């Protein structure tokens, strides 16, 4: 079963600062409660992470996965390469400069699990992931640049 979630937040920072926090994937262990370990397996010539291994644990499900990132101006996306519990994961952040020193951040996520979870657990997980991806990102950006 594949589920999707979208979350939108305004962050009081510019696109470059937000992109810098997102590119610091190793810091996910500090601001994402699901992340236990992160390792960059491949980076591009400018140091942007391309292939990343992550160990996560959330709602009683632990997983080790590899994702592949794509970086653009004001946008980052990633897709699942391998995982023990997921067969699909596609995610994207889109950043739009609002012209007043703030940035609108839209986070989209599609996840398909190989295991079955009760509907109530899935709903809680979706909300938690969306909150971490937006509110957690905002808190980390403001901690660094606010």
UniProtKB/TrEMBL annotation:
State the protein's name: SRPBCC family protein
Q: Pfam families per the record?
A: Polyketide_cyc2
Organism, scientific name: Dietzia aerolata
Recorded superkingdom: Bacteria
InterPro entries cross-referenced by the UniProt entry: Polyketide_cyclase/dehydratase, START-like_dom_sf
């Amino acid at each position: 079963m594949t589920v999707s979630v979208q979350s939108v937040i305004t962050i009081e920072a510019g696109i470059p600062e937000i992109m810098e926090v997102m590119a610091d994937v190793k810091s996910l262990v500090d601001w994402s409660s699901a992340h236990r370990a992160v390792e960059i397996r491949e980076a591009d010539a400018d140091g942007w992470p391309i292939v990343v291994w992550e160990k996560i644990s959330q709602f009683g499900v632990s997983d080790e996965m590899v994702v592949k990132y794509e970086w653009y101006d004001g946008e980052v996306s990633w897709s699942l390469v391998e995982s023990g519990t997921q067969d699909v994961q596609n995610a994207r952040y889109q950043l739009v400069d609002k012209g007043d020193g703030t940035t609108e951040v839209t986070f989209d996520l599609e996840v398909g699990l190989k295991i079955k979870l009760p509907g109530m657990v899935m709903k809680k997980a979706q909300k938690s992931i969306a909150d971490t991806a937006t509110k957690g990102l905002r808190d980390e950006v403001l901690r660094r640049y606010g």
